[in-house]
Amino acid sequence: QVHLVESGGGLVQPGGSLRLSCAASGSIFGVNPMGWYRQAPGLERELVALITTTGRTEYADSVKGRFTISRDNAKNTVYLQMNSLNAEDTAIYYCMLRNSPYTYWGQGTQVTVSS
Hints:
The chain has 115 residues and is mostly beta strands.
């Protein structure tokens, strides 16, 4: 079993920044692909950013140039630095770890962008 714990969400003004963290624990062997998804009210969960075992990154078009995903393999932790936030970024953000054939999810952390 794998356990993911997110932190770092909150309320921020438009144009502000937040940094999300996700720490993985449990039956983790080696380095696994990890990422961030988000779900806004009334919408489906969507990919925000992924980082592979080799450090290759992938971003949703809507966050390119504003968000940066990174990882610390020694700590089994993935981060999401979010800059220039706007109201459209308001959502619950979920951490994901893929250990084929299984995918694990965190409990989610709320990010609200509002003045």
